[in-house]
Amino acid sequence: MKESSCLREFARYASLNVMGMIGLSCYILADTFFVSKGLGTNGLTALNLAIPIYSFIHGSGLMIGMGGGTKYSIQKSQGEHRQANRVFTNAVYLAAMFAVVFVMIGIFFSGRIAAILGADESVFEMTKTYLQVILLFAPAFLMNNVLLCFVRNDGAPQLSMAAMIGGSLSNVVLDYVFIFPCGMGIFGAVFATGLAPVISMLILSWHFIRRKNQFHFTKCRPERKLAAAIFSSGLPSLITEMSSGIVIIVFNSIILRLQGNVGVAAYGVIANLSLVVIAVYTGIAQGIQPITSRNYGVGNLRNVRTILRCALITMLIVSAAIYAVVFFGAAQITDIFNSENNDMLQRIAEQGLKLYFIGSPFAGFNIIVSMYFTSVEYPLPAHVISLLRGFAVIIPMAFLLSAVADMAGVWCAFPCTELLVAIVGAVFPGSRKIFSVSSRISS
């Protein structure tokens, strides 16, 4: 593949996946908007307490989908079609296994989880309802993520994007219908969210109806070695999504102590907007994965390096635009979700937006570099980067800075963490050759 053709393919895949991921992230953003309008500050607090569970479900689906999609793309580019089908089949087995676990948790432990997450009497029932319904819809979320990734790697990024956006738009419409005309409250919001992946899969079914799919379910037993390979390739995607949930849980506990339910509601505005921003970076990263894996599979190293450079340059441009919008529009953004005109919520959220999103370019770098290493079957640095930003650094950083600077410290924990992890990624053994995979291949 010529370099000019590679650039066009990058632009196509990245743009489609960014739009699709923005659409996908709007599942929760739509909930935030309509819940804030229909249920006020308590509804917004309940939503923000429950939202980490969605991150765990979505991250599990992405882990299986991205890990399986990467292995599938490499096997297909090398002409190993039978093994590629086994990859898809084992990905479905893994999704089914995770689905059973999430559904059982939803049936038996929703109330206990709501209490652990900090829901008091005023928001407990709404939090429990949201948790239970989102967990019962876990099979749909998981399978949708698997199919999105495989259809994208099967040469149909437009359809994958259409499915993500179609599901998200349906969620926006159903949110309004269920919360306002139907008066279904928090149940209506989460029910609309749960129906979105079902609608997305119906759109994806067109790929199979037209018989365009080159992957098929095949008769084979679950394979531990193949499952481990899928986990290894997809683990950074899981940690990236789980980190959002972990951060929300930790921040909620700290903010409840500092500012109570209103502070958590204010953080809900920032957390949900952060999901959209992270989705943009994830879209760029997912956009480079199929073409990077394909070019790596056939040994075209020049194109692999070109794709990564383009992704990082794109990320920097997008980051500058995002922070400009957030910094100058903080008051207007907060006002959209502040239906009760709560002065305290407005003040906390405005400060948080301006401080929190300083970390955007560092987060974008970490997400894209993690996906790059995964795409060329070099997962160790991707795992290290993902673990540091998801757990090892952000949690102690949040407690430390909040003890020093209260709410300002909470907001600064995210940019400080992402900056430190980006530095680690830049000096990690082998990362100095980030624009060259030749040493890895030759070994």
Please outline the helices and strands.
Elements (H helix, E strand, L loop, with lengths): L2 H75 L3 H36 L7 H13 L1 H16 L3 H23 L5 H25 L14 H74 L3 H28 L1 H8 L5 H14 L3 H16 L3 H14 L1 H34 L10 H5 L1
Helix pairs in contact: 1-2, 1-3, 1-4, 1-5, 1-6, 1-7, 1-8, 2-3, 2-4, 3-6, 4-5, 4-6, 5-6, 7-8, 7-10, 7-11, 7-12, 7-13, 8-11, 9-10, 10-13, 11-12, 11-13, 12-13
Largest sheet: none
Unreliable stretches: 434-443
Give the CA-CA distance, first to last residue: 24 Å
Rounded to an integer in angstroms, the radius of gyration calculated over CA atoms is: 21 Å
Structural class: mainly alpha
Oligomer: single chain
| Shape estimate | globular
Q: Can you walk through the features of this model?
A:
This protein is an all-alpha fold and 443 residues long. The chain has one domain (3-430). The protein is 86% helix and 0% strand. It has 14 helices and no strands. It has helices at 3-77, 81-116, 124-136, 138-153, 157-179, 185-209, 224-297, 301-328, 330-337, 343-356, 360-375, 379-392, 394-427, 438-442. The radius of gyration is 21 Å and the shape is globular.
Compact summary:
The protein is an all-alpha fold. Helix content is 86%, strand content 0%.
Which structural traits does this protein have?
14 helices; 86% helix; 443 residues; 0% strand; mainly alpha; single chain
